[in-house]
Amino acid sequence: MCLGIPAEVKEVRGHVAVVDFGDGVLREVDAGAIEDLKPGDLVIVHAGVIIERLKGREAEELVRNIQEFIEELERRAEELARLYGLPEAGAGAAPVGGGEG
Amino acid sequence: MTWYIRLWKFVTLAHGAGGKETEELVRNLIVQKVPPELWKVGEDGAGLDALDDSALIPLGGGRYLAVTVDSYTVKPIFFPGGDLGKLAASGTINDLLMAGARPVAALDAIVVEEGFPVEDLNKIVESYVGTLAENRVALIGGDFKTMPKGQLDGIVIASMGIGFTEHPIVDRNIRPGDKIIVSGYLGDHGAAILAAQQAVGVDLGVESDVKPLTDLMLPLLDRYASYIHGAGDPTRGGLAMLVNDWAEKTGTVIVIDEARVPVRPQVKEYAEMLGVDPLSLASEGAAVLAVAPEKAEEIVEFMRSLGYEQASIIGEVYEAKDPRHRGRVLLRSVTGGVRILEPPSGEIVPRIC
Amino acid sequence: MAEQPAGMGGVPGYRPEASVLRDIESMLRSRSLVERIVEKIKRLAPLAARRVGQTPIKIMDFCGTHEYTVTHYGIRSLMPPEVEIVAGPGCPVCITPAYYVDVMIKLSLEGVRVYTYGDAYKLPGSGRRGRDIRSLEEARAAGGDVVVVYSVLDAIKMAREDDKPGVFFAVGFETTAPATASPVVAGIVPKNLAILNVHRLTPPIMRYTFETHRDNPIRGVIAPGHVSTIVGAKAWRFVVEEYGIPTVVAGFEPVDVLLAILEILRQLAEGKPRLVNEYSRAVTWEGNVKAQRMIEECCEVVDAAWRGIGFVPRSGLAFRDKYREVDALHQYGIKELTPEEWRYDLPPGCRCAEVTLGIAKPTDCPLFMKTCTPGTPYGPCMVSSEGACAVWARFGGGGLAEEIARSLGIM
After folding, report:
1. What is the pLDDT of residue A87?
2. Is the peptide bond before B76 cis (omega within 30 degrees of 0)?
3. Going by C-beta distance under 8 Å and a sequence separation of 6 or more, which residues neighbour residue B302?
4. How far apart are CA B83 and CA B189, in angstroms?
5. Residue A89 has pLDDT above 60, yes or no
C-alpha cells in the first residue's frame, strides 16, 4: 500500500533533509520522524517523509544480513524436506550472488 | 469497440496523454465520423485505416507521398536537452522516417498567447527551422496566430511533414517471427520532462533524447528497407503503447524481455520513485523496429556501427495460439516471471501507494 | 565502495556512491536467486499442503505494494499449484469512503484549492459516470482547483507562496500518517492550508478480514513492510497468537516476497506458526517510536468508515481538538460521517469490497475489463495503481499471462 523508496541522506537542515534516491535527483523531504539523522544515513522515504532508517550503515552489512536470512531459511527448508524423505535438491550450497547485469 | 467516451463528461488530460484514452477518443469521436471510403487515398494507400506514423498516398510507379501532422506542446518549453522547436521538428521528421520515407518538406502553424516573450518565440523558431535545415528539410509554408491572454497557456506548434518513399513501412506488415529492436535508451525524454516538472532545482543528469533519427534511418532504409516490417518512435505512451499498438493491429502476441530493454539506471530509479513504469515514458530520439529474424543480428550490428551503441533485440513477435491472446504483449520480467504489458492508461501522475 | 556495474560506465549523472542501494536492489531482483528460492518453494509446497490438508494454500499479501510486486514480476506464474496468493485490503485509496471524495470535489469547485496525492486524483466519489463530476481529475477538467502533489511539504510550499485557501486530502495508512503528523506537530502548516484527515489503521481491518474468511481460511500472511516500519513487527502478534496464522513482515523486492512465501510454507510444514521479520533491514519490533508519538500527539483513534465495508471499530485517525485549526472538518464546517449516516458507497454491481477483502478475485467481477477499465474506472479498486483490479488489469492477473506463455512454449 505504501511505496517506500530507499535513499541516501545528503544533508540535514533541521526539519528537512536533502536525499538522493540513487537517480541523482536531490529532493527535500520531511525528516521530522527520525532522531539524529546524519548525512550518509540510508533511509526509506514515503510520501516525502523519511519513515525509517535502514539498519546497518554499510552495504556489506545489509547484504550479509539478507544473505544470512536466505541461507538459514534454505537450510531449514532442506532439513524439512529431508525429514519428509524428499530427494536431495541440486542447488543449496552456492553462495548468494548479486544481480546478473 | 465499446464506446468509452460517453463515460466521460469532460475531456481530461488523460485523453491527450497518448495512451488508451487518446486512442479511444480518436477512433470513436473522429474516425467513426469519416465515411470508410474516405479513410485513405488510392487502393494501396494508408490513412485512417492504418493510423500509422504517416499517411501514404500512392503516386504511381511504386512511389508514395508520405504526410504527417502533429501538434506540439510541452512544459517547460525549454527543457534539458531541447525545446519545443526542436521537439516539433524532430517529431515531424521521425514520423516520416518511421513510414520509410525520406523527409523533404514541412509546414508549421504556430499559436501563441498574448504577452509571450518575443525572445522566447525567436529561440523556439530558430530551433525548429535550424533542426529542419540540418536535416535538409525545407519549410515551405505556415501560419501564425495569437490568442488573448489566458486563453492559451504559452505556445502550441502544429507541424506537418511531407516525404517520399518507394518502400513504405506499414505496421500491419509485422508478422510472427519478426524480432523487435530498439535503437537505444528508452524513456529519457519522459524522465527529463517529469523531473523538470516535479521537483525544484533537480538535476537528474538525464537530458531529453529529442533528435531527428535521419542519421540512423536513412542508412538503414537504404540497406534493409525490405527487411524492416514495422517502425515506430516510442513517443507519448512509450514502448508499452507502441508494441501494444502493433500487437493489436496485427492480431499477434509480442513478447518483450525486460532484462534486454535498455533503460538508464537513473531513469529507472527515478520512475520507480514516482511510481511510473519506465516503459511508458516517452522517447523523442529512439526508434523501435520489427525486422525479419534472419537479418536481426546484422541490423543491430549496423545500427551500432552508426553510433547507436545501445541498439538491442528486445523481443519477438508470435502467432496467437488462441484468439483471446491476439493483441497481447507479454513481458518476461527480470526475475523470469511473466506478466501482461498493458498500454499505459490515464495521465501520468506521481503516486505514494 | 563497489565498482560500477558493467555497461553503466560513462552514463551521465550515474552516481557510483548510490550503488549501496543498487547492490541490494539487484541482489533482490536477481534471476538466479529467484530461481533458487522458487525451487525450494516447489519442494516444500506439497509438504505444507499435506500437513494443512488444503490445496491450494491461501496466502494473503495484505499490502497493495506487495500485490504490485507479485504481479509486476510475474510471481504468480512461478508458483506451484499448491500455492495461491490472494490480495488483501491494503489499498488506502480503494477504501477511502466516497463521501470524502464528494466533499473534496465540492470544495475544489467552490474555489478552494485541493491538494491530493496522485493516487486519489482519479478516485471516483458517489457521482454517476458520464453524468456527474465524480473525481478530482474530472473536477479539474470542469474548472475546479486541483493540484497533484508528491508530499505535504509540496502543498505547504505552494500554499505559502500563493496565499490561496487550500485543503490537503490526507489519505493513507499508518505509513502515510507521519507525513501528515510531522508538519502539524512542528507547527509549520500555514493558516491557509487545512487537512482532511482520513487516515486508516491496518491491524483492525486485518482482523476484520480474517473474520470474513472463516469458511476458507487464510493460511499465511505477508504483513505490510512499510506500515511495519511505523507500527513495528509487534503489531502483527495477534495474527499468530489469536488466529494461529504464520506471518512474515516482508520487503518489497521479488526476493523479499518469495522468502516470505517460503518461510510461511516452512512454518506450515512444521505446524508451528510464528511471526518472522524478513524486512529487518527496515523494520524493528517496536517500530518508529518517534513517528508513533507524533501521530499520538495530534491524532486520536476513532471508529471509521471503510468504503463498501462500513464502520470498523477503532480503525481511523482524527485530529485532536487541540489541533482543530488545521482540521478541514472544523475549518470548513464539514460534517463528519457517522455510522447512522453511512450508506453503502460502491456503485451498483461493483464487487470492490469483496475484492478488497480477498473474498473475490478481480476476474470474478462481471464488470472487470468490460465497463470497468483503468481508463474508465467504475469502482475504486480500478483507480489506485495499487487497487487489486487496476494491478490485474495492467499486468494481466487471473492467469492470462501464464496461459499465453505456455501456449507459446516459452515457459
Report:
1. 61
2. yes
3. B219, B220, B223, B224
4. 11
5. no
How far is residue B34's CA from residue B38's CA, in Å, rounded to a whole number? 7
Q: CA quadruple C254, C259, C261, C262: dihedral positive or negative? A: positive
DSSP E strands in B258-353: the ranges are 288-291, 312-319, 329-332, 338-340
Cell of A87: 530427494
Which region, left, alpha or beta, applies to residue A47 given φ > 0 means left and ψ of -120 to 50 means alpha?
left
Query: Which residues sit opposite A20 in a β-bridge?
Result: A8, A26
Cell of B154: 504559452
Which pLDDT score, from 0 to 100, does residue A77 have? 83
In chain B, which residues have their Cβ closer than 8 Å to the Cβ of C407?
321-322, 325
Q: What is the DSSP string of C216-227?
A: S---EEEE-HHH
Residues in A touching B353 (Cβ below 8 Å)? 1-3
Closest to C118 in 3D by CA, of C141, C136, C91: C136
Q: Are B330 and B5 in contact (CB under 8 A)?
A: no
Select from C24, C188, C277 the residue whose CB has the most chain A CBs within 10 Å, as the one to mutate to test that interface.
C24
Same domain, A35 and A60: no
Question: Given the DSSP bridges, would you call strands B102-113 and B138-147 parallel, antiparallel or unpaired?
Answer: parallel
Give the whole-angstrom CA distance, residue B180 versus residue B314. 6
Among B9, B275, B345, select the one facing C138 at the smallest CB separation. Answer: B9
Domain that residue B62 falls in:
34-165
**pLDDT at site B210:** 97
Grid cell listed for C13: 549523472
Q: With an 8 Å Cβ cutoff, is B205 touching chain A?
A: yes
Residue B324, number of CB atoms within 10 A of its CB: 12
Residues of C within 8 A of A65 (CB-CB) are 280-281
**CB of C71 closer than 8 Å to CB of C395:** yes
| Domain with A44 in it | 5-53
Which pLDDT tens digit goes with each residue over A27-56?
A: 889 999 999 999 989 999 998 899 999 886
B112 with B186, same domain: the answer is no
- Mark whether B132 and B148 lie in a shared domain: yes
The helix or strand, by DSSP H or E, that contains position B82, with its residue range, turns out to be strand B82-83
Q: Give the cell for residue C301.
A: 483513534
Residues A48 and A73 in one domain: no
Q: Are residues B208 and B251 in the same domain?
A: yes
Residue C366 C-alpha cell reads as 462481471
- Calculate how close chain B gets to A44, using CA atoms only, in Å: 11
Q: Give Cα B155 distance to the centre of its chain.
A: 21
Q: Is the ipTM of this complex over 0.90?
A: no
Would an 8 Å CB–CB cutoff place B337 in contact with chain C?
Answer: yes
User: Which position has the higher pLDDT, A59 or B78?
Assistant: B78
Cβ-contact B266, A23 below 8 angstroms: yes
Q: What Cα–Cα distance (Å) separates residue C59 from each residue in B160, B277, C55, C267? A: 56, 27, 11, 13
- What stretches of C53-189 show up as alpha helix (H) in DSSP? 64-72, 98-109, 118-121, 136-141, 152-162, 177-186
Q: Which three cell numbers stand for residue B4?
A: 468509452
What are the chain A neighbours of C11 within 8 Å (beta carbons)?
none
Q: Which helix (H) or strand (E) covers residue C297, if one does?
A: helix C289-298
- Selected for mutation to probe chain C from B200, B339, B351 (highest C CB count within 10 Å) is B339
How far apart (Å, rounded) are the C-alpha atoms in residues C396 and C401? 6
Compute how many other C-beta atoms are within 10 angstroms of the C-beta atom of residue C246. Answer: 26
Question: Is the domain of B142 the same as that of B187?
Answer: no
